[in-house]
Amino acid sequence: MGKVRKLAERATGPLAGIRILDLTSVVNGAYGTQILADQGADVIKLEDPGSGRGDGGDIMRWAGHPPEGSPRGMGPIFLTINRNKRSMLFDLTDPKARKTLEKLIATCDVFAASVRYAGLKRLGLSYEDVAAIKPDIVYVHAAGYGSDGPYAGEPAYDDLIQSASGLADVLPRTDGNPTPRILPTLVADKVSGLFMAQAVTAALLHRARTGEGQFVEVPMLECVTSFLLVEHLYDQTYDPPTGQWGYVRVVNPNRRPFKTKDGYIGLLPYTDKQWDQFFEAAGFGDVIAKDPRFADYFTRMKHINELYGLVGEAALTKTTQEWLDVLKPLSIPVVKTNRLEDLPDDPHLAAVDFFQTFEHPTMGGYRQMKPPVKFSKTPSNIRRHPPELGQHTDEILAEVGADEVQDA
Fold first, then answer.
1. Peptide bond into 240 cis (omega under 30)
2. What is the pLDDT of residues 86-114, one digit of tens each?
3. Which long-range CB contacts under 8 A does 245-248 form with residues at least 24 apart?
4. How far, in Å, CA of 116 to CA of 86, rounded?
5. CA quadruple 225, 230, 235, 237: dihedral positive or negative?
6. In the structure, what pLDDT confidence band is assigned to residue 20 with cuts at 50, 70 and 90?
7. CA 20 to 30 Å from 387, out of 66, 294, 302, 408?
8. What is the bridge-based pairing of β-strands 4-5 and 19-23?
C-alpha cells in the first residue's frame, strides 16, 4: 500500500478556527463535512449511542469488511468520508443532556444536519432553537426535498433522488433500452455533499462581512436536478423549445472508451484541426475530408453518432500506447482507460501522491485519497484518523466545561 504517512500536526486549511457541529450521517452530509474538515474546520460528529445499526453511530460504520481483529464500526466507506473529524457519543433524545448540548452549540460556528427537519423540531433543534443559543450560527440542513414543495419532509436516499431527478432516464436515452436505470455510484449523495460544502463557506463569508448567521437549506432533489440539466435541458432551454431533452453529444451510444488493439482509450478530438489530425493518423484522412457530414462543428454535432462510430473503427488500428505516442504530441485529448484496480498504479495519480497510507493506532494500515483541491497559501491536510465511535466524547466535554453528558 505504499509508505506509511504521518498525520499533520495542525489544521492549515482556510477554515482553520471554524467549528462545525455535525449531525449528518451516511454519505451526503458526511462527505460535505469531510471536505470542510480537510479544509481546516474542527468537525464534531455527534453519534447516537444505540439507535443505528450494530452498536450505534453512523450507519456507514457497519458497511463493508474491516480486517480481521480490527475494531468494530470502522467500515471502508466510513473511513473515506469521516477523517479529520472528532466523534462524540450523544443521545439527543435525553432531556438530561440538553444543557451540555447548549454549551456545545454555543462554541460552534456551523450547525449541520441531515436529520429530517420535523425530527429536528421535535428535538428542539430547529433553526430558531439553535439561533436562540448562538445568534450568528450558520445552520445548514441537508434535506431530501425543498421545504416549499409537496415532497418536503419525505425520506430521501441516493436511489430515490436518482429516480426523481431524471438521472435514471439518462442511460435509456443513450442505448435505447427504455428501462430507467440508476448509475452505479452514489452520485446524488456526493453531488449534494459538494453543494452543502460550498453553501457553508458562502454563508460563513456572509457572516464574516455582516455578522449575520442564517438558515441554509440544501435539498438533494433540486441540487441533483440542476446538476443534471446543465447540459441535458439542452434545446428545451428555449421557450418554445427548439428540440430535444439531452445533449446530443453526450446521449450517444458511441460515446464511450474506445477499444484499441490491446485495451481502451478515452479520446476526444474537439477542434476541426484535431479531428483531421486524428483521422489522418488512423489512415482515414481521405474519407473524412470528402464527407460533408463532418465538415465543421455544427454539422459534426448533427451526425455525432456516425462520427463516434468512425472513431471506434479508427481506434482499433493501433495499440493504446501507440495512440498515446501519436496523439499526445499533437495535443489531442487522449488518455488510457483505467479499470478501478489500475488506479493505484496510474502514473499521474502516483506523481501527485493521490493515494496515501496511514497507520491507525487500533485497526492498522488503511488507504486515503488526499484532499484534491490545492490551496497555495492554506493547504488542506489530513491530521486526524477517522474516529472510533465516541472516541472524543470526554475531550469535547472538557472543552465545553461539562464533566458528563447531563445537566450541569
1. yes
2. 999 999 999 999 999 999 999 999 999 99
3. 245/173, 246/170, 246/173, 248/301, 248/304
4. 23
5. positive
6. very high
7. 408
8. unpaired
- Domains of the chain (ranges, CATH numbers): 4-228+347-399 (3.40.50.10540), 258-336 (3.30.1540.10)
Q: In this structure, what C-alpha cell is assigned to residue 17? A: 478556527
User: Residue 406: is its pLDDT beyond 90?
Assistant: no
| One-letter identity of residue 147 | S
pLDDT in tens, 108-160: 999 999 999 999 999 999 999 999 999 999 999 999 999 999 999 999 999 99
The alpha carbons of the chain give a radius of gyration, in whole angstroms, of 25
Distance (Å) of CA 316 to CA 170, 236, 269, 273: 27, 37, 16, 21
As a residue count, the chain comes to 408
| The C-alpha cell that represents 348 in the structure block | 499521474
User: Per-residue pLDDT for 407 more than 90?
Assistant: no
More confident residue, 377 or 68: 377
Q: What are 254's three cell numbers? A: 458511441
Asked if 383 contacts 7 with a C-beta cutoff of 8 angstroms, the reply is yes
